[in-house]
Amino acid sequence: MRNSWTLLLLLALSVQSLWAQQVAENDKLAARASNLLSYIAVGYGDAIDKGQIIDTGLYQLQQDHAAEALDLVRKLPDKPGRSALENSMAGLQAALSRREDAEKVRRRANEIADRLAALYQMQRSPAHSLPSASLAAPLFQQRCASCHGRWGQGDGALPDLRDARRMASFSLYDLYNTLDPNVDSVHSERVDGDLNSRQRWALAVTVAAFAVKNQLPPSADLAERYPALISLPGMAVTRPIELPTDARSALLWWRGHPHLIRSLEHPLTRAEGLLSLAETAYRGGDNAGAYHKLMLAYREGYKPLQQSIEMSDRVLYSKLQAQWQTLRREVLSNAPNTDVIASIQNLGTLLGRARARLEPMPGGHISYLWAALLFALALALGVSLWWGLRWRKRSRL
Ligand code: HEC
């Protein structure tokens, strides 16, 4: 009897580990496809200009990348939405064949990469804050400078890592991916085979910093205008080139200096970002990862402002407290995806309300109010004086 229980336990454990292996294998396939798509988005403009081939070898490479990305996606488990994804990938291949405009190809390739990420719950952002560029600067000099140059200048043969336009086409995650030996084949094992994930993120930041070296930081009001871009996952997954001009140059700078802008980040925006990472993890079946991100969101995003929220809006505060509890319970008890996602979205809305509640009333509104009041007073005074004069004139007549 005891033996059969042990057997059953062993069987369950091996099924679980097989399943985990399969998930990891799928993550690699999806990341590889995303890497190829990013090379198409970035490099196609160097191969084709206004419908003309300017680099035959590179053009062929882009077509091979598109075909390989489609093969990889076909190896991923089938699910609703995959055939639509395959269709748009076939559309990309057709666009390449007819030498479509570079900007359109870039958009297509990036859009496909984003859809792939959403469909297969790709983790494209770290949960912990990004390391500073200086952390990996020595590593860059040791491992990378021999080919890419001390400042990323490329020395002719390689792309210039300081080229802001080219770099704007990569998200930080795309850069991170070029250093993953399971994903990218440009670099040999000797270059990146032993790097851990934290080192790769640090190198991605180091590389991102080259394009904005010696540039002044963007003004602080941009951080208020685009809070999601100074938070994760926004900072890691957004390609600056797809943004309006002011946000584009701001993001280029911010992602090269994550340690300098941490103080600009609203803790509740951090909580919202981590919740969205928790959602991706939960959807992908990684419940432990989801729980970790949920706790980080609570500790690093909500906790620092918990008291202020309580003081400014008690009702909202008790709703928030209850919602954190519910979500925690649901994740711990492996509740169905739909319940957890609904709870995460609910919590996100409450956090958004808390953020609006805590924001100070902009000075502009107050002065408008005063101006309006003073104007009304002056008007009333003027009218009464005029009326008084008229009345006196009449009475004298
Ligand atoms: C042995 C030479 C060599 C070394 C060392 C090397 N790289 Fe590269 N790297 C390349 C080549 C070749 C490419 C592909 C260039 C292309 O696509 O035309 C590349 C591409 C890249 C790209 C994509 C750039 C783009 O614009 O397409 C990044 C980012 C990058 N490397 C970062 C690094 C980092 C970080 C290191 C150090 C850990 C490193 N590389 C080490 C040769 C090297």
TrEMBL record:
Reply yes or no: does the keyword Transmembrane helix apply: yes
Coiled-coil intervals: none
Keywords, alphabetical = Heme, Iron, Membrane, Metal-binding, Signal, Transmembrane, Transmembrane helix
Q: Spell out the InterPro entries in the cross-references.
A: Cyt_c-like_dom (IPR009056), Cyt_c-like_dom_sf (IPR036909)
- Transmembrane helix keyword on record: yes
All residue ranges annotated as the Cytochrome c domain in the record: 131-230
Signal peptide position in this chain?
1-20
- Transmembrane ranges? 368-389
Name this polypeptide is given: Cytochrome c
Q: Which organism is it from?
A: Microbulbifer variabilis
